[in-house]
Amino acid sequence: ISQSIFEKKTIPSIIESDTYSEIANKIFKNASVRSLKFADMLAKTLQLTKLVKLLENSNRIEVFGEGASGVVCQDMYQRLLRLGLNINYSESYHEKIAHASLMTNNDLAIGISYSGKTKTTVKAIEICKSRGAKIAFILGSNIDKITLLSDVVIFTPPGIKSYAASPVMNRILEMMFNEVLFHCLVQKNPDMHNRVKNIEKTLNEERMN
Prior knowledge:
Blueprint: H1 5-8, H2 20-43, H3 47-57, E1 60-64, H4 67-81, E2 87-89, H5 93-101, E3 107-113, H6 119-130, E4 134-139, H7 144-149, E5 152-155, H8 165-187, H9 190-206
Parallel strand pairs: 1-2, 1-3, 3-4, 4-5
């Protein structure tokens, strides 16, 4: 991926002498710049288009991730389930292995990992691969083993240097990416659009006045 105007922008790291408002300013600026970087990176490859097509054409979709990445998996599951996709996510390792073992060449496995080194996630994805499933990975780091394993790889851009800030910001970007996938899928699919409308209507009826 070539350098872009967004990649040349830098946000200063958080330092001990920063005031609370300066910390807030740096965090929010970082989020803004990283979001634009992410959009720019997606525009320079066909990875987003490939992933959308795989989601549209797969019989079954399994999502794998642990810890903070598991939160992103749950968010993806909730968003894409509303479109009528046959998608699943489980927090149980034994269930993950069972689901992975039942995958076929008509299915899609999505791994989500900041480091790309989470053993349980990589193990589940390797099993899916051995069953012939297509593989997509959403990563915060370029890991050769994962990129060789995958049909589609989505990288999130790095952020400012501060204690635990990069993984947290990465999680936010990945949830935003879930929303991107949702709208890419629903945009030209009337059936998916109607499913979402019907679900929202039912949920609204259940809310207090």
